[in-house]
Amino acid sequence: MNNHVRELRGGQGWSQADLAERLEVSRQTVNAIETGKYDPSLPLAFKIAKLFARPIEAIFEPGE
Amino acid sequence: MPALRAWLDRFNDWQARTYARGVADRMERAADGGRRMTRGEAWALLGYFGALLASNAWLSRAVAPPLRVLGALLPLPFIVAIVALAVRRVLGMDELQRRIELVALAIVAASTWLGFGIGWMLRHAGVSAATPMLGFWGMPLLYVFARRWAGRHYA
């Protein structure tokens, strides 16, 4: 799955640690999501969407 | 002067960001401490080794079957306590850490099942001297390696 978390985070001027704190997860989790090594659970994906005020499908899209 | 003021503002922002990042990193390191053994787990482990020694001493003296059963199962409450505390610790982790633990446990379970299967077949052929103790001590070691591998896989 591809995602735009890194771009959205960068747009807010947040570090991975900042985003991790807001999402109440570890920085490793944020890094793994951004690099596409880990697909977040549905609750976490909703949390990310709510934080960036975007629909989930605008942040996450199916990969090849 | 406006250029100097702008530069000072940027410098102040950078300082604030660096400080905030440092605080966040320290908080994360503190949270990472949760992955290490807690005091309760350490006591349960100590109790387990104590019970293991007591069980050995008991079994060398006890003759009656009920007493031997009691002696053999002496470490059991401590094993249950260690498992319960470990489950509680894993449930308190974030979802990626839980995934890493799950992958590590799956690797250990599959390897142990395979190892016991191979050991049983070789023993059946009369060419193996492997004992269950090998699995008992090998499992934690394998878990450490599996957890490290899973952690790197998601890093």
Task: Give a written overview of the molecule.
The complex is a heterodimer of chains A (64) and B (155). Chain A has helices at 5-12, 16-23, 27-34, 42-51, 56-59, and strands spanning 2-3, 60-61. Chain A has 64 residues and is mostly helical. In chain A, strands 1-2 form a two-stranded antiparallel sheet. The longest helix of chain A has 10 residues, at 42-51. Chain A starts with a strand and ends with a strand. With 155 residues, chain B is mostly helical. Chain A binds chain B through residues 15, 17-18, 20-21, 24-29, 31-32, 37-38, 40-41, 44, and chain B through 17, 20-21, 24-25, 27-28, 31-32, 94-97, 99, 153-155. Chain B: This is DUF805 domain-containing protein. Chain B: It comes from Rhodanobacter geophilus. Chain B: The chain crosses the membrane at residues 42-60, 72-91, 103-122, 128-146.
Brief overview:
Chain A has 64 residues and is mainly alpha-helical. Chain A is built from 5 helices and 2 strands, in the order βαααααβ. The longest helix of chain A is centred in the last third of the chain and has 10 residues, at 42-51.
Topology at a glance:
The complex is a heterodimer of chains A (64) and B (155).
Chain A (H helix, E strand, L loop, with lengths): L1 E2 L1 H8 L3 H8 L3 H8 L7 H10 L4 H4 E2 L3
Antiparallel strand pairs in A: 1-2
Chain B lengths: L1 H31 L6 H23 L3 H8 L3 H16 L3 H30 L7 H22 L2
For this entry, give a set of tags.
heterodimer; A: mainly alpha; two-stranded antiparallel ribbon; 5 helices; 59% helix; B: 155 residues
